[in-house]
Every structure is written in structure tokens, then in C-alpha cells.
Design brief:
Blueprint lengths: L1 E7 L13 H10 L3 E6 L4 E6 L4 H16 L5 E5 H9 L13 E5 L21 E4 L4 E4 L8 H9 L5 E4 H12 L2
Antiparallel strand pairs: 1-3, 1-4, 2-3, 5-7, 5-8, 6-7
């Protein structure tokens, strides 16, 4: 069995209009044949296991079920357990980020979409900071995410196709993946 986390953009965010009960989300994933389904927090984070198969097939099942059963469309990004663990382990701002709720881990739709963020590395963002990992980008939003010009620039560069969670959420998801 392979373990994954599905990150669904815009679920239960203030003003997003996409309200989904986590129990409904768990039921959906179980009905789609996934195992060991858990949700984390109330913001579209689903941890699950499935037989080894192409990630694109897993993603297609989730998106189809989300649309047909819940009547919603939203960007969904699926990370493997290894990718999630690497994102937490390889955090380049572990010494800089004093508050994990202000350290965003941005997950582009595809790994190649990280290239869209390379031009932003040339700009000065202090006291904020941007770094690119192998699958995710790290944003230190010193004054908070809501006031972050860096987050705005990153989201625009990705054409709102990625999703973000703070490092505290990523760390909790990583811990959930290691539990059964």
C-alpha cells in the first residue's frame, strides 16, 4: 500500500464558498476505495492509502468523485508520503522561521510548475524569503500570510493552480502518515 496526502485548494476557507464537512470527505475517499482515510484539520487535507498505481489515476478518481458526489470542483494535489516527509525534512528556513504558521509550504500542481517561481528568486522580499525545494516552495511570511506580498506574487505566478499549507500543518500531516 502506498500512502498519500491529498491537498484540496479552497475547501472551507473564509470566503471561498466551498464548504465540505470532513466526514463527507472521508466517506467520499472510502467510497472511492481508498484505505486508512483520515482528514486533518478542517481545510481539505486527506491522508489515505491505496494500492500502488499511477498518481494521475489516483488524482482523476479524487477529482471525479469530488465533482460528482459533492458537486464541487477544486484543484487537488496529491503528494506521496515520501514527498511530504521530504518537504518537512528539507525546510531551508528552519532557523529563520520563528512561527510555523507563517512559514508556507506551497505545492504547485506539477513539479515543473516550480520553474514559474524562479524569477521571483531574483527579487528582494526582506523580511520575507522564498526558497525552492524539489517538489515545493517555501515562503517565510514574516508579517503573516494575509499581509504577504510574496504569497500574492507566488500565487499569481502559479496562476492560482497550486495550494499552500503552513509548516505546522505539513508537520502534522507527516506525523499522521507515519501512524496507522
Amino acid at each position: 500500500m502506498a500512502r498519500y496526502v491529498a491537498l484540496i485548494r479552497g475547501v472551507n476557507n473564509a470566503g471561498a464558498g466551498s464548504r465540505v464537512a470532513m466526514a463527507d470527505l472521508r466517506d467520499l475517499f472510502e467510497d472511492l476505495g481508498f484505505r486508512d482515510v483520515r482528514t486533518l484539520l478542517n481545510s481539505g487535507n486527506v491522508i489515505f492509502a491505496t494500492q500502488k498505481q499511477e498518481r494521475s489515476a489516483v488524482l482523476a478518481r479524487i477529482q471525479e468523485g469530488f465533482a460528482s458526489r459533492l458537486g464541487l470542483t477544486a484543484p487537488v494535489i496529491v503528494l506521496s508520503g515520501q514527498e511530504l516527509a521530504a518537504a518537512v525534512r528539507d525546510n531551508p528556513f528552519s532557523n529563520l522561521a520563528t512561527d510555523p504558521s507563517r512559514l508556507l509550504v506551497v505545492v504547485p500542481r506539477t513539479r515543473s510548475d516550480l520553474g514559474r517561481l524562479r524569477p521571483l528568486l531574483e527579487e528582494q522580499w526582506a523580511p520575507e524569503a522564498l526558497a525552492l525545494g524539489s517538489r515545493v516552495a517555501y515562503l517565510w511570511c514574516a508579517a503573516g500570510v494575509a499581509k504577504s506580498p510574496l504569497w500574492t506574487a507566488v500565487d499569481r505566478a502559479l496562476e492560482r493552480s497550486g495550494t499552500a499549507r503552513n509548516m505546522a500543518t505539513f508537520t502534522k500531516a507527516c506525523a499522521c502518515l507515519s501512524e496507522k
